[in-house]
Known about the structure:
The chain is an alpha/beta fold. 42% of the residues lie in helices and 13% in strands. Strands 3-2-1-4-5-6-7 form a 7-stranded parallel β-sheet, sandwiched between helices.
Amino acid sequence: MTTLKGKTLFITGASRGIGKAIALRAARDGANIIIAAKTTEPHPKLPGTIFTAAEEIEKAGGRALPLAVDIREEDQVVAAVAKAVETFGGIDVLVNNASAIHLTGTVDTPMKRYDLMHSINTRGTFVCSKACIPHLKRSSNPHILNNSPPLNMEARWFAPHVAYTMAKFGMSMCVLGMAEELRDDGIAVNALWPRTVIATAAVQNLLGGEDTIKGSRTPDIMADAAYAILTKPSRSFTGNFCIDEDVLRADGVTNFDKYQSVPGEDLFPDYFI
């Protein structure tokens, strides 16, 4: 399959950042996009809402279904999946993109933040996958794609922010287990992670501001890599921990300059790489 035309994608956290970029790339093919995210009103530090994202998706050529969903709440996820199926007739792709981040050591991590990260990152991924799998089984090329890192089980990735690492690696463990669990059903389960920092609101607000943004790439590189994965045959491409740049290199991309937030700046590597 070389197109997502007519396919239905359920994307968590798609109101901004990487999730929205993936949605817009699929929309250019004429895909149907469920924007499953929390933001319904403009926020001073977070650009976009599910409704402004829907407008952009439809302008790009897709069909959009904006749904206010807190993926910590199972009933909201189940209702959103039911609405997606009612509207578009099924689900072909689940992108578990929504995440929370708090980079602190053990003593400095409030349990409220610990619970938030684990409820959204690991549990939210599991809940959304659980709700979508029965519908994915009926798709001709079903994919689950988690925005999560390779399982590099080294102390250096845990020590500075053990709570966050556990929560993100929980998403990756879903890939490891579900890829094998769902292999006979033909459902691909893969992870995608950036080689460099990506210019998102989280980076702007929490991880160094403008200085970090200068050394980052735009979300478009993750969107293009996700597109390359989601158009591969689900029965033969599963259980992979993909890096955005490597995916695109495998497809013949050699020049990545267009993805730089500020041309010519030195790039910052992302965590876990």
